[in-house]
UniProtKB/TrEMBL annotation:
Residues 1-20 form the signal peptide. SUPFAM superfamilies: Soluble quinoprotein glucose dehydrogenase. It comes from the Bacteria. Residues 27-53, 177-216 are annotated as: Disordered. Gene3D superfamilies: TolB, C-terminal domain. This is PQQ-dependent sugar dehydrogenase. Residues 35-48 have a biased composition (Low complexity).
Length: 368
């Protein structure tokens, strides 16, 4: 029997025109110039600031790159959403398939989604993945020469709102962002894993210190969490798709309720909900992956087709700035490599972009 979800019952506002449902709407034509430095690797400083004027192309013709995680040697693993393949990427070399996750059912926004590499990878050799199967979304772990072990199952699936981002926090625990799978009531149901951020041990059990002992639920009231990142002080930030009006960046604290479906954007504090730190209109953002480095939060925007940079100080976010607008089309995932370089994936082959030759791409911006 597969392991099952443990059912314990236990700002800055950026305004704009009201538009429909963020990621679900396609955008106009992409503009995808070939970046400079193709096939090269410039030096990068782990303490530097990513140079967004110095792009390097790591790989091209990737089929809906989604999850991105780094191995201790600096190589990257990237998940192809629709094929279930995991590719090993090293700048200057051709992508190498190192695994194919069995049982991936890629329909709509579902498929092979997030990847995570644990802090003890050198000893355990495990890779973690979040993917859509025939009946549900699930989290598995595996070694690249072995079969997957199901850690969490029964996360409801749908054509959209599957969540899918996973990452290990500074506490060594595995965090997972889920979506409401099209049923908003799930987000407020503490017995449902949907519309939540889950906090798990590396073995997939509810992590010690969770708000409700025996439950993996860390926070609730989310619509569709697709970005997770920590600052230097260990504070967790999350990116979330809105519906018709506002996308969000939230500071995640244990046990907090972030309001969906009662609230979209800010305005829920008088009802006991936690407001986002930043909102964008859905046309400006549809934020997927986020990353934090050099006191800056980076948010990859799908429908917005830009990279948002936000200064970060003591848990507070400053004024966002749009970078790379319309340079590379839809942007899905952003991550910081061990050498401080910022890696970015495009997402025009996901059915909602206009595909230009060479897409989708993985780009690298060295830190200076």
């Amino acid at each position: 029997m597969l392991p099952r979800f443990c059912a314990a019952v236990a700002g800055l506002l950026i305004t704009g025109a009201v538009v429909a449902c963020g990621e679900e709407n396609p955008t106009g034509p992409s503009v995808a110039p070939i970046p400079t430095g193709v096939g090269t690797t410039s030096p990068s400083s782990p303490t530097g600031q990513p140079d967004l004027d110095a792009p390097e192309q790591v790989a091209e013709n990737i089929d809906v790159p989604w999850g991105l995680a780094f191995l201790p040697d600096g190589a990257a693993l990237v998940a192809e959403r629709d094929t279930g393949r995991i590719l090993r990427l090293v700048p200057g070399r051709a992508p190498e398939q190192v695994y194919r996750v069995p049982g991936v059912a890629a329909r709509g926004e579902g498929g092979l989604l997030g990847l995570a590499v644990p802090p003890d990878y050198a000893e355990s050799r495990y890779v973690y993945a979040y993917f859509t199967a025939d009946t549900d979304n699930r989290i598995v772990r595996f070694r690249l020469d072995g079969q997957p072990e199901v850690l969490v199952a029964d996360i409801a699936k749908a054509g959209n709102h599957n969540g899918g981002r996973i990452a290990f926090g500074p506490d060594g625990m595995l965090y997972a962002g889920t979506g409401d799978a099209g049923q908003s009531r799930r987000s407020q149901d503490p017995a449902s894993p949907n519309g939540k951020i889950l906090r798990l041990t590396p073995e997939g059990r509810p992590a010690p210190g969770n708000p409700d002992p025996g439950s993996p639920v860390y926070s609730l009231g989310h619509r569709n969490v697709q970005g997770l990142a920590w600052d230097r002080a260990g504070r967790l930030f999350a990116a979330e798709f809105g519906q018709d009006r506002f996308d969000e960046i939230n500071l995640i604290e244990p046990g907090r309720n972030y309001g969906w479906p009662a609230v979209e954007g800010a305005g829920g504090t008088d009802r006991g909900y936690t407001d986002p730190l930043i909102t964008w209109t859905t046309a400006e953002a549809s934020p997927s992956g986020i990353a934090i480095t050099a006191d800056t939060l980076y948010a990859a925007a799908l429908r917005g087709r830009r990279l948002w940079t936000v200064p970060l100080e003591d848990g507070r976010l400053g004024t966002p700035r749009a970078e790379l607008r319309d340079h590379y089309g839809r942007l899905r995932t952003v991550a910081v490599a061990p050498d401080g370089a910022l890696w970015l994936t495009t997402s025009d082959t996901d059915g909602r972009g206009n595909v230009d030759p060479g897409e989708d791409r993985v780009l690298r911006f060295p830190a200076r």
